């Protein structure tokens, strides 16, 4: 099916809102999954001006798979059994042909996600449906690439990094990590946050739509504008910090503070040397 035909299939099925899957649904849905896995369609697409456009009908199609799928037992034998919607089994990836490494130890790639060439995945990690992981990226141990998250080229998602997913609302921007970013261990990036090209997110940083980011270099506070998402600037180096709680005498008496991300600098030669080492290690 062409992209136009797939969009028409999703739109028509969603508008009908039938309680059971309409005739021919699963055959068309298989074509939909294949288009996601080949990168022909994706939940969000980069635009020429640097913005990202949400393809709402793609996210709607993913939700239809959950609606009409049935929970069935899956797995190869009694020692590895799981139970999930039959529309979203695990995905087979031809690793040797595409230089993709999936190291043994409990990693799973769900159907409906795109995995680029030369991606390395360390166990255990998980890539959810609708996600897009571009070429040369590393997904390290215990890392999550959530539903519809968009990960660029040559990104390193360090151990226990959590890239949040988003399917609803349909028009919501998923989490986006652009090319050449380094995402540190035990980080959390949620609620449609956009991490621009080349940024470094230090270990332990948590970013959400309501998180203010303090830029020490340019002496500004970065917040999500009304109706938009939080954006981390290109080449920013973000570390976890704290700020004192104001307007509360008891908090002041006890020296209490809240966590806040701080842009400590923008990438320089030393930072780039670290990323060069990462590529050599791969």
UniProtKB/TrEMBL annotation:
Keyword Transferase tagged: yes
Name of the protein this chain belongs to: 2,3,4,5-tetrahydropyridine-2-carboxylate N-succinyltransferase
PANTHER family documented for this protein: 2,3,4,5-TETRAHYDROPYRIDINE-2,6-DICARBOXYLATE N-ACETYLTRANSFERASE, ACETYLTRANSFERASE
Record-annotated Tetrahydrodipicolinate-N-succinyltransferase chain A domain positions: 12-67
Organism: Cyclonatronum proteinivorum
InterPro entries, A to Z: Hexapep, THP_succinylTrfase_dom1, THP_succinylTrfase_N_sf, Trans_hexapeptide_repeat, Trimer_LpxA-like_sf
Record's keyword terms, sorted: Transferase
Keyword Transferase: yes
Family in the record: Belongs to the transferase hexapeptide repeat family.
Molecular function terms, GO-annotated: transferase activity
């Amino acid at each position: 099916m062409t992209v136009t035909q797939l969009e028409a299939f999703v739109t028509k099925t969603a508008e009908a809102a039938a309680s059971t899957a309409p005739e021919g649904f699963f055959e068309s849905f298989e074509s939909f999954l294949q288009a996601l896995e080949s990168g022909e369609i994706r939940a969000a697409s980069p635009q020429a001006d640097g913005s990202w456009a949400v393809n709402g009908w793609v996210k709607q199609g993913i939700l239809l798979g959950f609606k009409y799928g049935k929970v069935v037992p899956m797995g190869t034998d009694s020692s590895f059994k799981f139970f999930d919607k039959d529309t979203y089994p695990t995905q087979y990836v031809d690793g040797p042909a595409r230089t993709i490494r999936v190291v043994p130890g409990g990693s799973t790639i769900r159907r409906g996600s795109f995995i680029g060439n030369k991606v390395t995945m360390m166990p255990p990690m998980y890539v959810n449906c609708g996600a897009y992981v571009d070429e040369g990226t590393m997904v390290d141990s215990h890392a999550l690439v959530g539903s519809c998250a968009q990960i660029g080229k040559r990104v390193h998602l360090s151990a226990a990094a959590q890239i949040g997913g988003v399917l609803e609302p349909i028009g919501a921007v998923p989490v986006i990590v652009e090319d050449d970013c380094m995402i540190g261990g035990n980080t959390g990036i949620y609620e449609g946050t956009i991490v621009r090209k080349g940024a470094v997110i230090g270990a332990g940083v948590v970013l959400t739509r309501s998180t203010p980011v303090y830029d020490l270099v340019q002496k500004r506070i970065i917040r999500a504008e009304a109706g938009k998402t939080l954006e981390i600037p290109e080449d920013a180096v973000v570390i976890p910090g704290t700020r004192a709680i104001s307007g509360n005498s008891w908090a002041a008496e006890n020296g209490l503070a809240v966590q806040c991300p701080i842009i400590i600098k923008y990438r320089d030669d030393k930072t780039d040397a670290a990323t060069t080492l990462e590529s050599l290690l791969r």
